[in-house]
Amino acid sequence: LKGFKQYNITGYDFTNIGQDISNGTLIQFRGSAKDHNDYHYSIPYAATSVVRTDPRDESQTLYNVNGISTSNQKWVGAAYASNKRIYAAPHAAYGPLIINTEDPDNVTTSYINVGYGLQTRGIGLLDNGSGSGAAYMASYSGSESTKKFTFDADGNESAITTLPYTVPTDPYETARGAIAANDKASFSFIYRSYWGMVNGGTTGANTDYYYLRSPQWNKYKGGVLAGNGCIYSHGTHARGVLKIDTATDTVTEIAYPHTIVMAMTAGYTGADESRSNSWSRQPASMFSVLGPDGKVYNTAWNLPYQLVLDPSDDSITFNALSAILDE
Q1: Bridge-partner residues for 187, per DSSP?
Q2: Considering only CA atoms, which of 28, 111, 27, 20 is closest in space to residue 65?
Q3: How far apart are CA 190 and CA 143, in angstroms?
Q4: What confidence category does residue 196 fall into, taking pLDDT thresholds of 50, 70 and 90?
Q5: Cβ neighbours around 301 below 10 Å, total
Q6: Rounded to the nearest 5°, which phi and psi values hold at 147?
Q7: Alpha-carbon torsion 97, 101, 102, 108, what sign?
């Protein structure tokens, strides 16, 4: 395959572990975590149970969560904390999932009840390694805020708190002049985000530009803790990187370079587009990864670029994937 590195997998044996835990065509699980006993836990999205898999004997144990949520979009992403609990970020479930793995013979599930779906995906931990810390959940399709709770070694979690952020003015919007002003007048409720714009205020909510590029959908997923104590999350459809300063609990957005913004908007000039033609051109990153050099990398989704944030000065650089894959 031109442009892709190829590896010789001769001699490797790939098999499935455990039973078939799927159910229909919905996405069943989104995220997994490993505990201190090397059990692997699959986090239910549409599935009705947390599934623990023991890779040593391929056995599986199911922990039903119907008493917590019956949504088909429950939780996305999980992290294992030093208090031996796994925390998963709620999308439509009414709060973060808690899996207590301290006793492998008595694993329990519970949650922090918020009362509504927070629309978060992924979770970043600030963990002191002795059982205490804080969890931060970036907004995916919710408000322009990050959600936080704390945990301790005795198995106590705090209530959810909200860390709002004020988004900067998008120069691309400013350049659109009267069209952007028309947007704001007609769709003011979605103009709170850095990358918000619709179709000149002239089309309805089912149009491609309104639905797929609206800031209420698909902003950020998860985040990684960098050496400076800040959690960073590359934007999915958001046009920048979310920065959570865990020392001050402040949240800001760092704008992507103009080239990346233009690639994400596919050179959009104001005309309506077919949703099927433009869906695959927008997302910048699936998740974020902390590199061995201390920098934060995106996992490229539909943009042909590797994006790199340097926590030392919050600068963002990018390279074409084709050049990187040819190295």
Answers
A1: none
A2: 111
A3: 10
A4: very low
A5: 15
A6: -100, 145
A7: positive
How confident is the model at residue 112, as a pLDDT? 98
289: nearest Cα among 226, 218, 240, 219: 226
- Joined together, the tokens standing for residue 203 give 């089309």
Among all chains, which residue has been given the structure tokens 């639905």? 211
Task: Give bridge partners of residue 136 from the DSSP assignment.
Answer: 124, 148
d(CA 297, CA 317): 10
Q: Could you give the strand order of the β-sheet that contains 75-80, starting from the edge strand earlier in sequence?
A: 75-80, 85-90, 97-100, 108-111
What backbone phi and psi angles, to 5 degrees, belong to 279?
-55, -45
Q: How far apart are CA 322 and CA 303, in angstroms?
A: 11
Q: Beta 296-300 vs 285-290: how paired, if at all?
A: antiparallel
Q: How far apart are CA 120 and CA 92, in angstroms?
A: 8
The beta strand positions in 55-129, using DSSP E, are: 59-64, 75-80, 85-90, 97-100, 108-111, 124-127
CA 62, CA 27: separation in Å to the nearest integer?
17
Q: Which residues of 241-270 are buried (b: 16+ CB within 10 A; e: fewer)?
A: bbbbebeeeebbbbbbbeebbebbbeebee
pLDDT at 205 over 70: no
Using DSSP, state whether 305 is helix, strand or coil: strand
Cβ–Cβ under 8 Å, residues 33 and 42? no
Tens digits of residue pLDDT in 84-130 = 999 999 999 999 999 999 999 999 999 999 988 899 999 999 999 99
Q: Using CA atoms, how far apart are residues 219 and 256, in angstroms rounded to an integer?
A: 13
253 forms beta bridges with 242
